[in-house]
What does this fold into?
Amino acid sequence: MLRARLERLKGIKPSQAGEQMDIHNTAAAEKKSIAQELALYQDGSYTEGSSPYAAQAGISQPSFPPEANLLELDAKLESASKLTNLLKLVPLHDEEAHAHKWNQLHVQLAQNEFGTFLMRTRTYRRDEAIGMHQFGEWQQAGLHLNAFYPEQEAELEQFLFLDLETTGLGSGTGNIPFMVGLAFWENEQFVVQQALIRHPAEERAMLAYLHQLTAHFSHLVTYNGKSFDWPLLHSRYMLNGMRETIWQPLHIDLLHPSRAIWRNTLESCKLSHIEKMRLGIIRVDDLPGSEAPARYFNFLSSGDPSELEDVYKHNEIDMMSLVTLAIRFGHLLSNEDVRTIVQQPSEPEELVRTGLWLEKMGRFLYSKQLFQLAAHIPQQSSQTIMMLAMRDKKYNEMQRALMLWEKIVMTSGAFASRTQVEAAIELSMYYEHKAKQPLQALHYASLAYEFQLQLQSVSRRETKQKEKELSELNKRIERIKKKCRLSV
Amino acid sequence: MNEWTGKARDMSEWLESLKQQREIMDNVTEWRTISPRDAVYAPLPEGLHPELLKALHAKGMDQLYSHQAAAFSAAQSGEHVVTVTPTASGKTLCYNLPVLQEIVSHPESRALYMFPTKALAQDQVAELQQFADLMDCELKTHTYDGDTAPSIRTAIRNAGHIVVTNPDMLHSAILPHHTKWVKLFENIKYIVIDEVHAYRGVFGSHVANVLRRLLRICQFYGSNPQFLCASATIDNPGEHASRLIGKPVHVVDNNGAPAGEKHFIFYNPPVVNAQLGIRRSSVIETKKLASSLIKQGLQTIVFARSRVRVELLLTYLQELTEHKVNDRTIRGYRGGYLPKLRREIEHGLRSGEIKAVVSTNALELGIDIGQLQACVLNGYPGTIASTWQQSGRAGRRNEISVTFLVASSSPLDQYMIQNPDYFFNRPPEQALIDPDNLLILIDHVKCAAYELPFKQGEQFGAERLEDMMEFLTEEKVLHHVGDTWYWMEQSFPAHNISLRTAAGENFIIIDISNRNKVIGEVDRFSAPTLIHEEAIYIHEGVQYQVEMLDYEEKKAYVREVDVDYYTDANLAVELKVLHIDKEKTLGHLEQYYGEVTVNAQPTIFKKIRLLTHENIGSGPIHLPEEELHTSSYWFTFSDELTSKLTKDQMQSALMGLANVLGNVAPLYLMCDPFDIRVVPQVKAVHSGKPTIFFYDRYPGGIGLSKRLYELHETLLDNAEQLIQQCGCVSGCPACVGPIEEVGIWGKQTALQLLNSEEHIQISKGEESDEHAEGAARASERN
It folds into this structure.
């Protein structure tokens, strides 16, 4: 396992890649009728099929060619599980418009007491991956996500991943989720379900199913779902008069830890960017999410399911990217030396921010390693060092804090930086109050004053503010001087 | 009278001394004393909740005014109510009492208050909170507007008993997110709409549709709220409120509030050039009267019609306190000031710290500034209703108050000042709205569809719903499934629809000479003529020159300057007739009502010297043209008549008539000054005939031109009377316009057009009076 991952990281093709590539050859053989497939599910003789995008597990390797038209390759209907049995699924009848095309997309008709909608189901085996983590790693990593809500431990099967495709932006009542992407761990594999409404009148049936499904889960995992997906669904339940039944999950929104860690080191904290930079997921010919509504509108007017092919694909990758990210965070939270499992962040700031986040989540072992690493990287911004020093101060690890502040103060540049002023003040405070060495304190306070003067010669701050800052430093110096005299 | 300081002991002594001053009295055309009015009380109604009684007693209220009692009983009987009362008559209790009674008795009940501005909303919350503090019950009142912190919004949605907001917020934030407001919409018992007279014209037509949407959502949640409205005195409060809310209303107008004695003085600035009919500037006369009041220590409010005049007057009046360092007792107040500054000024007025304020009609609405002692109106405010509202700002109970109306030389002002009976005897204007203006309606149908899908058989406005649905489905905005139409578009419709103007958001003014501070804002209609490059923009009495106007980004960059002129911009207007809906012929005159397109482009600006008002230069304005498709009323003159005049004469005559008509028209319309325009054309594009156009300055029109078409004869009679009564020889700013503009034949030829057998008309539109006013508005020329 570990070997395979390391090889992937180093750009070596995974050993099973060859097998996956064989799908090309087997595709034709798999054009069995759906009825036959269903029969296979029922007698249990069906063996797992691999999912199309798993073939892209080669990650960020240009040498690993992208697969063309993946949907075509995969002709299998996935999974016959207890949760998917919640819903009566049948192939679209020939009389339904474009039945053939729906079948090609592996989309089935779902029906419940509120009406109909469409459902597409896929599975991802343990040994498959679309980025640098195989989905089977969920077994080691998943439970560590319980760190988000330590008071309620969930099983691996109780995490529901969700991502919506909607007709607009925001949580206004006119924004309709036309596709609900869902993923969960079942029978040692990931099941992805994509519910689609062919028109808004099918929404009730879809929501009713979602409600039925969610009863089996305790945790919800999303990306930006706290601000977007979940409030929107909430609103849809209200609008459809189903408010009594709204699920109250423990919600893990991975946007928040992502922001905590990558706020400054990555250009954007969009999932599509993070997956590319940190999870090794390269999307080929991916439909930008912003174009999904237009495709759906085209579908509404033409009725042609092929308009939605790219939307299905986009949403499916979103789902599996989210799962991959969750695995990564799970590993991080495992509190072990995970340097071999999770790719080492390269930016010192990222190391520090990751450590800070881990400590916030109550994980102290790995964070220490990260800080240690960060502290010894020679080239790094003084802000990052400051961040780490302030963390050390908080945990009263003064030795390194002093070292780091010193490092900032010693940095030479054309002009002093604000961080240098702050570091000098921190040092002065330490020597004045903790170490009780007023002479040292005076030295750093004077240094801070000097830095401040330099800084102000180039600063565009208001004069008032400048004066205030200087006079505060002056007060500090005067106070320490008094102490010096007393101690002399 | 203190002989040393010249200070009178009180108002009545000062008024007596005024009567001795010839140089003032010579210009007073009317001095009416309105007797004090005693209070009419009614006992506290039966069945008031004990907590409410406790609070009323604690406030020292053992009885109610008659109108308060009447409003309460009408509300209790389940009717929609509109209370019509003057300023400072305790009208808020008319709606607060029923609302509080309901909430104290049923704590799950909710109420929604809507005020036209944020400032009014904040006043209201303070007052309700005061009440709540006197009662042993939990009553949560919150404002919900753009300033509300996101962190407390959720709490307000779930727990606020009374949510105080404005129509814009309702339109773009609350209604489109109604699922977050379930608690409110399920339990809403009352909707309070104060200042209903402010919802007129385009704005009012939008608001009526916002209310349609609100009711539709209430219905979805199974509630059926009752409306409690309040209005200033207008001619048609019942009809207007009922049109606004779409339901019959019970009118309460038995005002029982007492009032002190009021002196209403009409003051016409002296003629300085009889031949040209030029009067002394109303700004200077206003300054004189206001200074005199301020020196007496009387707390005074001065109303001016434009922002520019406010700033001019402020500059002049602040000279009074120039010798005192940092004196902040004389202040300006207008729309462009930022909220924090306005709150500070309002507070200063209430506390008495501020002795005088110069304001636009921004202070006409019920913002709480306490009651002042004197009021000076610089120019007729435009409507009888506004005049009474503004005058109502002065008048403390049991004290004598005074209001001066200082006429400008615009024809309307001169008509009013010379016909005081017209003002004192005529009912105030009607508030007009057209909630079924198709453009406005369809905008709100979109918003409504976004909020809740439309079902077959629903009704929204006067149009057939199915037709609108089909249209919007074809436009790919809606999707039709079975008997339901769903919103199916990426956009958020409310964001593209502004209730206040046809034109979206305001321009902000950035002072680059002072750390890029934002000092104010200007609405989009005014921007091309007020803040074009090189314009002098006056703010809080300080002059700024516009250095750059970023039209796309809606920003004007200004720098503080000290110059002795201001600027006045011209707007070129082109009109095309698209469709004629109605027509009739009267003598030499053919009248039409129909649809037109208007293309307007600012052309040049003039630099006008302060005080002397002489033209000292000009420059071009480079801004894009704006196009408007609207309804219009116009009339053309017969060839026979036309042949009697030379082209130049016709030009003068048309321009003169347009000047008069543009000023007379507001007598019949209660509209914002920007809502209607008059344009004369010597040779109209569509007919080649001399024509005067009136048009609604809103896409699709809002019923103003239509009403003028109906009033045609009255309108012309009034115009003729005004020109004839004017004492000038051949035209002056008070009738057809100054000679420089209409030429020496202007007055004569205009009359000739009107007299020729029947009626004949033409139009154009702006007063020209002192150019101070002109700077605030565009003068439209063809």
Summary: The domain at 2-333 of chain A is CATH 3.30.420.10 (Nucleotidyltransferase; domain 5). The longest strand of chain A covers residues 115-124. The CA atoms of residues 386 and 405 of chain A lie 7 Å apart. Chain A touches chain B through 23 residues (CB under 8 Å).
